[in-house]
Design a protein that fits this description.
By secondary structure, the chain is of the alpha+beta class. The chain is built from four helices and seven strands.
């Protein structure tokens, strides 16, 4: 009976780690949802998962074998990094909670305009990260991969301007004119 419970814990740890890596890898690859609220929620769910996995594994293995020590060390490293990131996420959610969670608006990265050029969608965002970065403009190319999910690629950014105009040059390249 105890072996069956341990196998279930092992499966749970593996599933939680796969979920964590899937969300984090998707985030760094540029996969976003159409909603600022959902982006915050996905990160908020994913960030504490390594910490949970560490405590589940630590309770089970108690640092027994060498391989287990390496696995526990790796989980501890992930747990510390994700716990720190989760604390940062909590700060952001607390600071911007009314706008992000209730109004679905992220004031630190606010959509200014959407431009469609040759069946491609470009979006201009203004940034206001407070003390961590300057005011500026980011231009992204967003391609819908599933309904509500986009592959996002930054095509331009400049810190200082308040807006940007997007157009195509005759050679087909993208032209971004920043307004200061």
């Amino acid at each position: 009976m105890n072996g069956n419970i341990n196998r279930k814990k092992d499966i749970l740890v593996v599933i939680l780690l796969i979920l964590f890596f899937t969300v984090i890898v998707a985030w760094f690859l540029g996969i976003r949802t159409v909603s600022a609220r959902l982006n915050f929620i996905f990160l908020g769910i994913a960030l504490p998962l390594p910490t949970i996995c560490f405590f589940l594994a630590f309770r089970k293995y108690r640092l027994g074998h060498i391989l287990n020590k390496v696995a526990i060390g790796f989980l501890l490293f992930l747990a510390i990094i994700s716990a720190l990131a989760f604390c940062g996420w909590l700060f952001l959610v607390t600071f911007w909670l009314p706008d992000v969670m209730l109004k679905d608006i992220d004031r630190s990265f606010e959509l200014t305009r959407t431009v469609k050029i040759d069946n491609e969608i470009y979006r201009v965002y203004t940034t206001n990260c407070g003390a961590t970065c300057a005011f500026g403009v980011v231009v992204r190319k967003e391609t819908e991969i599933l309904p509500g999910f986009f592959y996002v690629k930054n095509v331009g950014d400049s810190y200082g301007p308040s807006d940007a105009e997007i157009s195509k040059n005759p050679d087909g390249s993208l032209k971004i004119d920043y307004t200061y």
